[in-house]
Amino acid sequence: MRIGDEVELARAAVPLDGTARPYDRVLEKVGAARFVLLGEASHGTHEFYRERAKITQKLILERGFDAVAVEADWPDAHRVHRFIRGTSDDRTPEEALAAFERFPRWMWRNHDVRDFVGWLRRAAPHVGFYGLDLYSLHASIEVVIACLERVDADAAQRARERYSCFEHFGTSTDTYAYAAGLGLSPPCQEQVAQQLVEMQQRLTEDVRRAASEDDGILFQVEMNARLVKAAEEYYRSMMGGSVVTWNLRDQHMADTLDQVAEHVGRRLGRPAKIVVWAHNSHLGDARATELGESGELNVGQLVRERHGRDAFIIGFTTYDGTVTAAPDWGATANRVAVRPALPNSHELCLHELASGIGVSDLVVLPGADGRLPDVLGEERLERAIGVVYRPHTERVSHWFRARLADQFDAVIHLDRTSAVEPLVKQEVREAEDVPETYPFAV
Question: d(Cα 226, Cα 249) in Å, to the nearest integer?
């Protein structure tokens, strides 16, 4: 960095010193925004979950936020929602989180999420907890049918008949994706669309009367029917390439967020205020990345386009440490070393800033013009670790070009981070390939 850049960046930085002051400053910058999007640079880092929880707690207690929407499947999150509200049979946060059975379980079944869910139950039972993702095809089908069976047997039977289309493919969404995508079998597109239309327009008056505000049957049926339709399109489109499926997924998440905001706002009689937890790659405006240049869009971009100044996006970065991640999709997770940031990366820039002012963790805030310092607006590398981490192909697998100042409204840098702790310890093993020179790898 040039000397002038260092000075500008240092002026915008507030050390995270364990007091409330840094996040008080963050809330000042959030202002009247109704959507606060909190990212993460990996799905398996303890400090990202911990700091997001701290900010969310302040937004709930001091700014009256109404809901938390997360990068998770709707049915699994709804079980947590019911636990927080005290309307389920679950007695502990661990039991409420047990619905997260699909890989990667540690992403939500970990100590940090457990503690946060327990806090919500104790301190903010009025707050909703909602899932934005679309992977729960079969679980959502079961929810739609089960909810309808409680109130309208005929409607439940129609749903069962329509969704029986998927029975030809078993429980494997990969099988459906392959058969439908290559035209080897008729897709279920028409059936799921018909079911969603009925949920939205033709539900009987008996269903509407049974759908009390507390029970939320109608909303649950509609949202799960929406998810089934989106998931069917997602899996049917998998043969069309990663950009197509990525865009379908993020459009669904952004649409779900808007549906939640409308539902919560209608119940409250005012515009809803929602915190979103998801990966940086979903929340940092795609238009500021090389991924956006290739045609990808994401939740952060869509929320900004739809809600303007009502959106405030906070990204998270780290220089090195450890992370819980799997070597391949579906594999057993490792607790593995995160290699130090690459040259010409935003992470190295923030690491040098932190070292220069004698701190390890800090938040970089926007100026009076609402923008982060210009030095973060320059194109540099940015790291993204999902649930899979391949340190031996670090550059190709986990780095992309981005303009941090255009992606985010604020950035929290946690210089050395540690692996998230799963609730089931047997799910994670110590990696055998930690570099001998860690943490001073060159």
Answer: 12
Q: What are phi and psi of 38, to 5 degrees?
A: -110, 115
Q: Which of 189-198, 265-274, 309-318, 362-371 has the lowest mean pLDDT?
A: 189-198
Residue with tokens 């926007």: 366
Phi/psi at 133 (5° precision) = -85, 175
Q: Which two tokens stand for residue 180?
A: 């439908």
Encoded tokens for 169: 């493919």
State how far the Cα of 235 lies from the Cα of 290, in Å rounded to an integer: 25
Indicate whether this model's pTM tops 0.70. yes
Topology adopted by domain 3-133+274-430: EreA/ChaN-like  fold (3.40.1660)
The model's pLDDT over 214-238, given as tens digits with 9 standing for 90+, comes to 457 788 989 999 999 999 999 888 8
DSSP state of 182: T
Write down the domain spans for the chain: 3-133+274-430, 137-243
Strands 311-317 and 35-38: parallel
Alpha-carbon 97 to chain mean position:
16
8 Å CB contact between 323 and 417: yes
Of 340, 318, 329, 316, residue with least CA distance to 391: 340
- The pLDDT score that the predictor gives to residue 427 is 66
Q: Which residues contact 313 (CB under 8 A, 6 or more apart)?
A: 37, 39, 283, 284, 285, 300, 303, 304, 407, 408, 409, 410
Question: Count of CB atoms within 10 A of residue 131's CB?
Answer: 28
Tell me which residue of 32, 42, 17 sits closest to 399, measured CA to CA.
42
Cα 202 from Cα 222, distance rounded (Å): 11
Please report, for residues 155, 283, 381, the alpha-carbon distance to residue 199 in angstroms, rounded to integers and kept in the order given: 9, 30, 45
Residues facing residue 326 across a β-bridge: 388
Complete DSSP assignment for 349-398: HHHHHHHHTT-SEEEE---TTS---GGGGS-EEEE---SB--GGGHHHHH
